[in-house]
Design a protein that fits this description.
The protein is α+β, with helices and mostly antiparallel strands and about 240 residues long. It contains eleven helices and four strands; from the N terminus they run αβαβααβααβααααα. The longest helix is centred in the middle third of the chain and has 26 residues.
Amino acid sequence: MAKSTKQDLGQFASRLEAALGDNLVALLLFGSAARGTHADGRSDLNVLVIVRDASVARLHAATPVLAEWAKGGEPAPLVFAEDEWRASADVFPIEVEDMREAHRVLAGRDPFEGLTTRRADLRRELEHELRGKVLRLRTEYAAAAADGQALGRLLVHSAGTFFVLFRATLRLRGGAPPVGHDALVRETAAAAGLEASAFDWLLAALGGKTPKTLEPYDPVAGKYVDAMEQLADFVNRMET
């Protein structure tokens, strides 16, 4: 993460902490910036805010800070009430465990202490998310198939979401997912019986290389879509 990005994040955290005062429970950074895979100018800064009272009236104090953050091009922070956060572990186990694994507390306390998730809930959400994301990927592929550049953009833009689900798959198998994209893909492919080469083009693009420009109806994109469909089928067959 570039020095200027760290400074912007620090200023944002200080201003938000001052605006929320004693209503703030926890403010943390999660995602690629906390995991060490952040690419300046391409990756988002993902922030979670947990407050004691998340009513509209109590959040008004933070509106100027949050609005300026969003105008700077970053996604709006996730905002949870403290009770809501603790009650969501069975609904969002993928997100909880992904944030637990890679986060940095910017203010307040660590919100993961005493928070547990269940394997059955993880498998249920994972299958639901995979089915939904595969359906969307297939639909977007059908619309972009005749345009090689659009296919390339589709693969790159979908990767972040699917990598979250790759990590969840490995956790469901009882393993600790690796940090790097290459290792994550290799381990997921081995666990689920996927063809690892289906991700070669994507990994090259994410690694800063210049892979070949995809052609219309390029089999590279087709293999990628097929692999994601196979992953969804694999998770469906897993016992809880």
